[in-house]
Design goal:
Layout (H helix, E strand, L loop, with lengths): L7 H4 L9 H24 L22 H12 L2 E6 L2 E7 L1 H10 L29 H16 L5 H25 L9 H17 L8 H7 L2 H8 L4 H4 L9 H30 L9 H11 L7 H30 L1 H15 L14 H14 L8 E2 L4 E3 L2 E3 L4 E5 H5 L25 H4 L15 H18 E5 L8 E3 L5 E3 L4 E5 L7 H12 L1
Parallel strand pairs: 2-6
Antiparallel strand pairs: 1-2, 3-6, 4-5, 7-10, 8-9
Helix pairs in contact: 5-12, 6-7, 6-18, 6-19, 7-13, 9-11, 11-13, 13-15, 13-18
């Protein structure tokens, strides 16, 4: 249950107008005594257990370079719900599906806030949906954003075809760049071209245009995702220990870099907003998401105009970061598990053939590829901990008292690696998501936690999954992936809002050995097919 403590005046009995000062004076101590007893009863409710916090820094030193793993270890000692202190901030960490679902779904509004972190105010011009506080205005803007994202991606057959056209064009450019870069048996790091390919799909949906892979300005803009994630990921010292910014330190440098990249990113999107505002004719059909948001704001004045570029900044920034990180993990799993790669290639050749590219309609007929995607999301847990939440009221979870304005860390990794839910969770095995007939087990896929749940569930989840399927199936259809045998096979990563793999083994991309037609021929056929 939830409670909010009533103000003192609400505990005072109603007094008639004729009541004298003596009766009022006698009543106030009684009310104070009642309130003190109520507070004592609430105080008897247990606070969550947790490790001893040190002065000034709290438990910051205990989180290490992989806080999600530290949280899981601490949960084995203190339980699924435990408390920490990071600097001056009280923190409660939630582990496991039961505790997380109880908080984010059953008590969604109570856990839907965001902490008043200084870094959060820098995102999207200070009007971010993703990082902003929970309010009636926030709910209004979120509903509008959710409807617009769906309308311009997966909401109708026409928009799904448009999304596919954008993605096919980027897939063609991506495959050509990867194969060309591997000419003569060379191995390469695909990170940069993946970021640009994914960002271009979102740029087309949001702004109606794409950028060249050689566009230095665009690459600098979208190539700073790691800096962003390090600053706002759970356990970041930028917010936990802000006093370190007073001295020359890595924390001060990180905060300033974060401030600058947010200024540049928001400035880029706001420039697009101003261009669209000038060129969108009254009554004209929206050309892209930016147009759709502007038109919606004109029709619904309660939606604030300055939230339009902020919301599009959120959508464009979050989607390209998440998707490019996911695709890099997928490539790592393809080279690490060549038998899995071969099975995926066999399935796509059998179902799709060689005269066209995979399309969204193929998804139900490619269960092994879908199983690979879900296992990749589960195993990597590339969004290990959600953006920090905060409680909006005093509340309880699993018998523990959680005061208002407590910072909440949601450890999604703990759900995806829970041995009570997954057999051998540290083994990479796509077949765990297939039933005895070889079909996708939808009950199990719904247990993978990457996009959060409840009031703050990612509004781009459906769009992200469609893009992941299309990029992966097209890459597997067109390429064979080989790791450099002379490089370190160990998997390593950098922690942040997403965990990004450190690619220690470069990859060679060869055209698929079963290919009968080149990518240009196949692309033309596929574009004609979906037009």
């Amino acid at each position: 249950g939830q409670f909010t403590e009533p103000p003192l005046v609400s505990l005072l009995p109603s007094l008639p107008a004729s009541t004298g000062r003596q009766q009022a004076a006698a009543t106030v101590p009684t009310a104070l005594l009642l309130q003190r007893r109520r507070r004592r009863r609430l105080g008897e409710r247990r606070a969550p257990p947790g490790p001893f916090p040190w002065p000034l820094i709290g438990n910051a030193a205990q989180l290490g370079s992989a806080p999600h793993l530290s949280f899981a270890r601490l949960a084995s000692t203190y339980g699924a719900v435990f408390q920490l202190r990071l600097g001056r901030w009280p923190v409660v960490v939630l582990n496991g599906e039961s505790a997380i679902r109880q908080a984010l779904v059953r008590q969604g509004a109570a856990f839907a806030g965001r902490p008043a972190f200084p870094s959060f105010r820098l995102v999207s011009g200070g009007r971010s949906l993703a990082f902003g506080g929970y309010s009636e205005l926030w709910k209004l803007h979120r509903r509008a954003a959710h409807a617009t994202v769906r309308a311009f991606s997966t909401g109708s057959p026409a928009t799904r075809r448009l999304l596919e056209r954008h993605l096919l064009g980027e897939a063609r450019a991506l495959v050509a760049l990867l194969v060309r870069g591997s000419a003569g048996g060379a191995f390469l790091d695909p990170s940069r071209v993946l970021v640009v390919a994914v960002a271009n799909v979102m740029s087309a949906l949001c702004f109606g245009r794409r950028y060249s892979h050689g566009d230095g300005e665009f690459l600098r803009l979208v190539g700073r995702n790691e800096q962003f994630g390090r600053a706002v990921g759970a356990g970041s010292l930028v917010d936990a220990l802000p006093w370190l910014q007073r001295f020359p330190s890595p924390v001060r440098a990180a905060y300033r870099a974060f401030r600058d990249l947010n200024r540049d990113f928001y400035g880029f999107v706001r420039g697009k907003f101003l261009q669209h505002q000038r060129s969108l004719r009254p009554g004209a059909a929206p050309r892209d998401m930016m147009d759709a948001f502007i038109r919606l704001q004109r029709e619904q004045p309660r939606l604030q105009l300055e939230h339009v570029p902020a919301t599009v900044t959120d959508i464009f920034g979050a989607s390209q970061d998440t998707l490019s990180t996911a695709l890099l993990w997928l490539l790592i799993f393809l080279i690490r598990y060549p038998k899995v790669q071969a099975k995926m290639q066999e399935e796509v050749d059998r179902i799709v053939g060689r005269d066209r590219l995979p399309c969204a309609e193929d998804q139900p007929h490619l269960p092994y590829i879908m199983a690979f995607l879900y296992e990749s999301m589960r195993f990597s847990s590339f969004v290990p901990v959600t953006i920090p939440h905060a409680t909006t009221t005093n509340t309880f979870i699993m018998g523990y008292l959680i005061p208002k304005d407590t910072v909440i860390f949601v450890n999604q990794w703990s759900v995806n690696h829970d041995p009570a839910k997954w057999s051998n969770p540290e083994d990479f095995d796509p077949t765990r998501f297939l039933d005895e007939n070889g079909f996708i087990n939808k009950d199990l896929t719904s247990s993978v936690m990457i996009f959060s749940m409840g009031k703050r569930r990612c509004i781009g989840e459906e769009l992200s999954k469609v893009q992941l399927f299309l990029f992966t199936s097209i890459l597997v259809h067109q390429c064979h992936f080989t790791a450099n045998p002379n490089e370190d096979p160990k998997m390593d990563y950098t922690y942040g809002l997403t965990i990004k793999p450190n690619l220690k083994r470069k990859i060679r991309f060869d055209t698929s050995s079963s290919g009968k037609h080149d990518i240009i021929h196949v692309l033309i056929y596929s574009l004609v097919r979906i037009t």
